Batch of 2 targets.
Target 1
Amino acid sequence: MSSILVVDDSKVMRDMVVACLRGIPGVEFAHASSGLEAIERLSLAKFELMVLDLNMPDIGGLEVLEFVRGQDLLSKLPILVVTTRGDEASRAHVLAAGASGFLAKPFTPDAIIAEVEALLLRGTGPAS
């Protein structure tokens, strides 16, 4: 069973991500509504993947990404950043910071399924 942490301050967006991914066999989900809650959940449970929004009110997604990459036990966790910032500069910045994948909102169910399945198959580590 693979466990995915979905982090977004919007409950609607968290629910939409889970609805899109629910068809992937052997996957269960946990939710976090803030960057701080994501960090807390990461310290309490093991996840095979995190879907992370950038724009959050307390600790932003970029800070969460940098925190995770700085932790020995979490540094290889695949992280798919899903954000409204769809420009190439934002994509390059997020990938350079250690994201494993990048998907602009709005996205199609097929797009997020493909990204998540690829990251779960690849296993660990940020994208090169």
Target 2
Amino acid sequence: MDALKEEIAAVAARMVVEEGLEFGAAKRRAVKQMGLSPRASLPDNVRVEVAVEEYIAVFCAETQVVELLALRKLACQWMQRLERFHPHVAGAVWHGTATRHSDIYLQLFCNDSKSAEIALIDLNVQYEPRTVPGFHGELVEALSVHAYCEELREHVGIHLLVYDFDDLRGALRPDARGRRPRGDVMALRRLLNEPVL
């Protein structure tokens, strides 16, 4: 990979960690900040994720572990509340690169997409519906909520992406780095019980 892509990845990684930006937005903003052409060749998400891990190791080693644990606990609470929708946690909270600026991404798998909205209404949870790209690029419904995280003493964005129940079969294929791209509540509990290094 050329040096320019490495530099873009490093600048984007700082924005991901410090501002909670998504990879795509961080890469585009990094290109703009660096004064490059909008058509500049961008690093792939794997390279940005590696740069995020490197940034955390250098600049956030003392705080990130505590913040990640708090976000994983909050994710686990929400997964338990929504267990009938077979929730899976994904993104930085699952992969271990989340900081206090990261949002939580939960993927729900159900036969009726409206049932997740009804469940939030029954729980008296305010949400904002929108449509976002899913894990295969198709558009899926997302229900975004803000939940208070006691340990971080601030509100955290939680995004519930609603998939068809049949999508669960292909959802656990390994990602580009050979890892499981998401985990259910049992897998998340195992992570919470692992000793902190």
